[in-house]
Amino acid sequence: MLLALLVLALIAATLAAPVVARAVSGRARSFGEGSGRERAAPGIGYDPGRERRAEQRARQLLRSCVNDEEWGMYRDLGFIRVDGKKRPERRATDRADTSRQDAAGPAPYAYLVYPHKPILAYVPESGQLLSEYCVEFPDLTGAGATRLPASDDVLAKWMALTSDESRVIGRANMHLVGRQLDPSRVRRDLWRLSEWERRGNHGSIEARRA
Amino acid sequence: MKPGHGEVLLTEGDPQVREEQERLVQEFRRQLDEGMWAAVPTENAGSGRREAQMVRDYSEIPPEAERVIFFPRAAGG
């Protein structure tokens, strides 16, 4: 009985061997092709080390330009809020009364600036999502195969919005929210932002590290 | 800012020194001719908030500015 089972197992192993061998060799080839594609990537200019160093420099540059609060926001949450500059038209008689409030009051609308994603416009007071502005800073050198490091992309948007909001918004493609940005994720980000502000978390991580 | 590289120092010099200023002006124009935007990080004197000022000509650079950042012009994505 034991001998019969042993012979049966040997036959089964012999029959299964080519199947196993095909599966193993197929996977190895697949691995080889995958590795080949990854090795081919540097040929078109991708260098992970260079990209990482570029991003490190970009973060330092961003930090040196934006406000401490904005830097903390980006470091902790991954995006920056930029207040809109355009104010609603007011009658001349109202302007004198409200000029002080305008200077210190909340902006009627604001933007969330994500790296390599559209700029999102929303109403801070109500949380209403207004629109997304698709904008990019394309490579002008002609190669067109590379893009700005993530933090440089955020800084470019921040500089463009704080210096000439109309210009950058005018160049962007405007869409309803949901084309590229997930509205539920944006709402979650707004909640995270409000929690972050409520806790007064500016610089908290650095404080903990220290 | 250069795609794929990040921050790259193009040139530096003292605007008070004529030769160095000429070099700065030349580089400034070259960057704008290549289609870059130029911005100077500034601090609002009233609120103390930081913001950027776009400059289209060398003469628009605030005298106290320590650096000018060039970045690719925005385009619809």
Index terms:
heterodimer, A: 210 residues, alpha+beta, five-stranded antiparallel beta sheet, 5 strands, disordered C terminus, B: 77 residues, three-stranded antiparallel beta sheet
Question: Would you write up a description of this structure?
Answer:
- The complex is a heterodimer of chains A (210) and B (77).
- With 210 residues, chain A is an alpha+beta fold.
- Chain A folds into two domains: 1-44; 48-209, no CATH class.
- Helices cover 59% and strands 11% of the residues of chain A.
- Chain A has helices at residues 2-40, 48-65, 68-77, 92-104, 150-171, 183-198, 204-209, and strands at residues 80-83, 110-113, 119-122, 129-136, 173-175.
- In chain A, strand 2 and strand 3 (119-122) form a beta hairpin.
- Chain B has one domain.
- Chain B is built from one helix and four strands.
- In chain B, strands 2-1-3 form a three-stranded antiparallel beta sheet, covered by helices on one side.
- Chain B starts with 17 loop residues before the first helix and ends with a strand.
- The model of chain B has no long low-confidence stretch (mean pLDDT 91).
- At the A-B interface, helix 2, strand 4 and helix 5 of A face strand 1, strand 2, strand 3 and strand 4 of B.
In short:
With 210 residues, chain A is of the alpha+beta class. Chain A has 7 helices and 5 strands; from the N terminus they run αααβαβββαβαα. Chain A folds into 2 domains: 1-44; 48-209, no CATH class.
Give the helices and strands, then pairings.
The complex is a heterodimer of chains A (about 210) and B (about 80).
Chain A: H1 2-40, H2 48-65, H3 68-77, E1 80-83, H4 92-104, E2 110-113, E3 119-122, E4 129-136, H5 150-171, E5 173-175, H6 183-198, H7 204-209
Antiparallel strand pairs in A: 1-2, 2-3, 3-4, 4-5
Helix pairs in contact in A: 2-5
Chain B: H1 18-33, E1 36-43, E2 50-55, E3 69-72, E4 75-76
Antiparallel strand pairs in B: 1-2, 1-3
